[in-house]
Amino acid sequence: MNKTIGILAHVDAGKTTFSEQLLFHTKSIKKLGRVDHQDAFLDSHEIEKQRGITVFADQGRFEYQNSTYYLIDTPGHVDFSSEMERAIQVMDFAIILISAVEGIEGHTETVWNLLNKHHVPTFLFINKIDRTGANVDGVLDEIRSNFSKDICDISTTFKDGMMSEELIEFIAERDEEVLEHYMEKGYEPDLWLKKMQSMIQAAQIYPCASGSALQDIGVKSFLEKFDLLTVTDFNSSQPFSGRVYKIRYDDKGTRVTFIKGLSGTLKVRDEIDYGNEEVEKITQIRTYNGRQYRQIDQAGAGELFAVTGLTNASVGDGVGALEEKAVYDMVPTLRSKVVFEPGVNSKEVLKYFLMLDAEDPSLHVTWEEQLQEIHLHVMGTIQLEVLEQIVFERFQLKIAFEQPEILYKETIENEVMGYGHFEPLRHYAEVHLKIESGKRNSGIQFESRCHTDDLAIGLQNLVGQHLIEREHHGLLTGSPLTDVKVTLVTGRAHNKHTHGGDFREAVYRALRQGLEKANNILLEPYYHFKIIVAIDQMGRVLSDVQAAHGRFDSPMTEGDKAILTGIVPVATFMTYSQELASFTQGKGRISLTFAGYYRCHNEKAVIEHIGYDKSADPEYTSSSIFCSKGQGFTVKWDEAEGMMHCL
Q: How far is it, in rounded angstroms, from Cα 92 to Cα 302?
């Protein structure tokens, strides 16, 4: 049986040490490493050794009983949440580590919420019970209060495959069939075990244990129970399908694509068909344990493996019979410019950053041709520091980053018509678009109401493709346009003169022409916050949220604690965790997750600071091009509508 398990936690909760123990107990590694000794098996990168934190979601492999386990040790620092989320989507089961001293911390809530969203069955391990101040019962109460009441402590209620009366009743209370059997015939171990397995699989209950990874207390016992309580069922007889969850370039510069097999079997020299007449051949299949790998001839359902030969597959892609692309929640809210020394070839630097972008698509690396600059998106300043080290170690290139700035977006408040015409000599395309405001955080939605007598279905689809193929610049700051619904009303092509690219030109011009007439507004990223403080500190926090232009829900209280939730701009709150820690003496807890984009609180100041000139954007124009007497001529946006051919 193949099982992929992920180890997740807030930074410094002991994930890597716990992973080392699992690998050591199953003889996958010969000696235990330690993070503080810089010799942990899974923190093998120099950057991880220096900083003492996990940056990359590396994997181990071990055999236990009748199962093969693929273990993913994920980053715990919030700046590397994107890496963690990509790994979550291929996990069969997750294990969250929580410190018995610190309890639930900010990032622990983010992890829990992501696992719930992606429906990953989850176990919990309360770690560091050997430390002064450890309070297992208190942490259990905290977990039940904040996460779920369906937590069962398997440390004390499940031994040698037998359940205590407490656990027997816990299962029976949650399943009518089991309860009826219990009332009529009493406890039957096999029935209870199967029900417990299915409840865990369905994320209806969450087993919890405790111990100390560093002192090797409770880890082996946890593994025995985990193995007994988890089952997977992959179909090897179906056609091959898999999910790309990671891309890396090895020491020789070879692009290595990591895949979780979901069904069927993949063999060396098999072809991957992308469905657009593009086919690539698998040249190698590798199975990794840390940085070590061995080549194999085939890989199957339920396995984590890597392949060479694929150059077009991206992180999150489905391959084989799986076409669905993964969607990620952990979205960077900051943008920074790459700074490199004079005389360095900028296109060479761009090549390196595009490799990093393939490995981490959340970087969203872009090349600003007019400014000759490289920009990228990041989660925070620690990520920038790590990227500096990565670029130097891998490419021997010294770079720096400018102070990161907030990533803004733009949308409109009303409904407008946009008209675009592109007719230089021997070219022709015309597009009429209705553009209206969409739901907040809905992106760009496309619909066609165009009659096929006016425009063939293929060309209508092409209009939609051009609307979503790239980000479109808004007029206020040049930031990406979002939250609009665009409807193709009508259009026209020419049997002889319409060529590839003509409709792209017409669509871009129509979109821009519509924006010129719209009420444009600026959006900024917001956090959803959850803050827990002593009741007498509640007023201070609420005042701070208001000062930061945030909005809060009705406060809740539990005992002597106040629980505060709401949304607040990233720009005004990104450093609040340090302030909270200061005035609560480290006892306050804060969880910040990306909440989406909402109206900018200081729109005028931001527009002035960015200083975008809409008429000088080389990638966009709101003018149309018409043809007369064999020559094309430009018509400005405010005059173009009266010259459209379809009106």
A: 9
Pairing type for strands 2-9 and 67-73 reads parallel
Output the pTM of the full model: 0.85
Residue of 312 and 58 predicted with greater confidence: 312
- 3-class SS of residue 168: helix
Tell me the residue type at 337: K
**Sheet containing strand 241-249, strands side by side:** 292-296, 284-289, 304-308, 255-263, 241-249, 318-320
| Alpha-helical segments (H) within 272-345 | none
DSSP one-letter code for 12:
T
Cα atoms in the 13 Å half-sphere on the side-chain side of 624: 29
Please enumerate in sequence order all residues whose Cβ is within 8 A of that of 510, keeping only pairs 6 or more positions apart, or say none. Answer: 418, 419, 420, 431, 432, 433
- For 176-214, what is each residue's pLDDT tens digit? 999 999 999 999 999 999 999 999 999 999 999 999 999
Q: Show the tokens assigned to 379.
A: 């989660």
What tokens appear for 136 in the block? Answer: 């297992």
Pairing of strands 298-300, 334-340: unpaired
CA-nearest of 588, 577, 578, 576 to 533 is: 588
Buried b (16+ CB within 10 A) or exposed e, 10-30: bbebbbbbbbbbbbbbbebbe
- 57/44 Cα distance (integer angstroms): 11
CA–CA gap between residue 291 and residue 49 (Å, rounded): 14
Radius of gyration of the chain (CA): 28
The pLDDT tens digits of the residues spanning 210-249 come to: 999 999 999 999 999 999 999 999 988 899 999 999 999 9
Tokens 């990794």 correspond to 288
Dihedral pair phi/psi, residue 41, rounded to 5°: -60, -40
Centroid of chain to Cα 541? 29
Cα 479 from Cα 450, distance rounded (Å): 29
SS3 assignment, position 267: strand
Cβ pair 229, 152 in contact under 8 A: no
155 and 210 Cβ atoms separated by less than 8 Å? yes
Give the domains, in start order, of the chain with CATH numbers: 2-229 (3.40.50.300), 241-320 (2.40.30.10), 334-406 (3.30.70.870), 410-518+632-643 (3.30.230.10), 522-604 (3.30.70.240)
Is the Cβ–Cβ distance between 266 and 240 less than 8 Å? yes
> Which is nearest to 622 in space by CA: 436, 435, 421?
421
The full length of the chain comes to: 647
Residue 608 corresponds to which tokens in the numbers above?
A: 């002035």
